[in-house]
Amino acid sequence: MLFPSLFLLLVPLAVALETVPLWPLPSSYSFGSEVLGLSGKFAISYSGNNEIVQKAVSRYLQLINNPTSGSGSLTSCSLSVTDDSTTPEIIGSAEGYGISISSDSSCSITADSVWGSLRALESFTQLLTRSSSGEVQIEGTPLAVKDSARYGHRGILIDTARHYLSTTEILRIVDSLPASKFNVLHWHIIDAESFPFEVISPSLSFSRIHLFSHFRVLLSQLWSREPSALLKSTLLMI
């Protein structure tokens, strides 16, 4: 029968996920049996100039919230990005990374791209636990983790056209995307032909000519009334 065999295939997978503190499961990994604590002066060192990576390092250090009283021997972890001079389109880009922590308390994180560094930092924080005394530690050292994206498009859909979601809930969903290494948020805002959502910044992957606002709707209405050539040229310049 199909179902018993399917069940047997799922059992080892479930066990593996319980023993490896990473999600999704990386393509390759190895863990030791030692526990390594973070020093109170622990830092992630990144010598590059990419603003996205710099902000990510600061954000994850705040998330780790390592107490200054930490007595562990891991004082720093170096982060190097093969190509951080550009910020490529996130869908289909190289997102591979590696994490290595040796028995002599040396730690290194490598990434293929800017986006790979974000995946690596997320995985690094997933490796951390907190002791009963509040100190941050890593179990299973020495360790080595390597991973890359199996699918270039990994997204989640939220549908506020049919199901109400509060702003708090939407922000919670957005904040949860990195934990599962998602790189796309598909937001179905409305079913109507109109698009009543004002975009005031091109940072949402819109070019300037595609930004939506009440002012641009007014311009489109003026345009539809067959304006003079002078007015047309004026509208095109805006």
Concise account of the structure shown:
With 238 residues, the protein is an alpha/beta fold. It has 6 helices and 8 strands.
Write the layout of secondary structure elements.
Elements: H1 2-19, E1 28-45, H2 51-64, E2 74-83, E3 97-101, E4 107-113, H3 114-126, E5 128-130, E6 136-147, E7 155-159, H4 167-176, E8 184-188, H5 214-223, H6 229-237
Parallel strand pairs: 1-2, 2-4, 7-8
Antiparallel strand pairs: 1-6, 3-4, 3-6, 5-6
Helix pairs in contact: 2-3
Give an overview of the whole structure.
It is a single chain. With 238 residues, the chain is of the alpha/beta class. It has three domains: 18-147, 2-Layer Sandwich (Chitobiase, domain 2), CATH 3.30.379; 154-193, no CATH class; 198-238, no CATH class. The protein is 31% helix and 27% strand. The protein has six helices and eight strands, in the order H-E-H-E-E-E-H-E-E-E-H-E-H-H. It has helices at 2-19, 51-64, 114-126, 167-176, 214-223, 229-237; strands at residues 28-45, 74-83, 97-101, 107-113, 128-130, 136-147, 155-159, 184-188. Strands 1-2-4-3-6 form a five-stranded mixed β-barrel. A two-stranded parallel sheet has the order 7-8. Strand 3 and strand 4 form a beta hairpin. Helix 2 (51-64) packs parallel to helix 3. It is globular and about 60 Å long. 18% of the residues are buried. The model is unreliable at 1-18 (pLDDT under 50).
